[in-house]
Amino acid sequence: MREFLVEITTTIPDGTSQDEVGRRRAAEAVRAKELAATGNLARLWRPVGELRSIGIWRAADEVELHEKVLGTLPLHPWMTTITVTALESHPNDPGRVDGPA
């Protein structure tokens, strides 16, 4: 699997009830746990004071990432910006599992 840095901004549509927001957020938490269990979601952060997320996601390629991973998130219809950057290992990465280049 390849790794991707993904930044997501989610905007709740005007007029959406708090009940609907709560249902989708709860479903999002369940789906995130499922994706973590399959190895598709490695890490996830939220910048302090912001309603966006930054994460390390895994998929075979960018098409799979969008269609079979991010597209399955309950909040996906409300995601107004999704920025994807494909990543590769840096030779000086201290967390590299295959050792230095």
Commentary on this structure:
The two termini are 20 Å apart. This protein is α+β, with helices and mostly antiparallel strands. The chain is elongated, with a radius of gyration of 15 Å. The chain has a single domain, classed as Alpha-Beta Plaits (2-Layer Sandwich). Strands 2-3-1-4 form a 4-stranded antiparallel beta sheet. A hairpin with a 6-residue loop joins strand 2 and strand 3.
What order do the helices and strands come in, and which of them pair?
Blueprint: E1 2-10, H1 18-37, E2 41-45, E3 52-59, H2 62-69, E4 79-87
Antiparallel strand pairs: 1-3, 1-4, 2-3
List keywords for this structure.
Alpha-Beta Plaits; 2 helices; elongated; alpha+beta
Tell me briefly what this model is.
The protein has helices spanning 18-37, 62-69; strands at residues 2-10, 41-45, 52-59, 79-87. The chain is of the alpha+beta class.
Here the CATH topology equals Alpha-Beta Plaits
Tell me which CATH architecture applies here: 2-Layer Sandwich
Total number of helices: 2
The whole-number mean of residue pLDDT values reads: 94
Q: Termini distance?
A: 20 Å
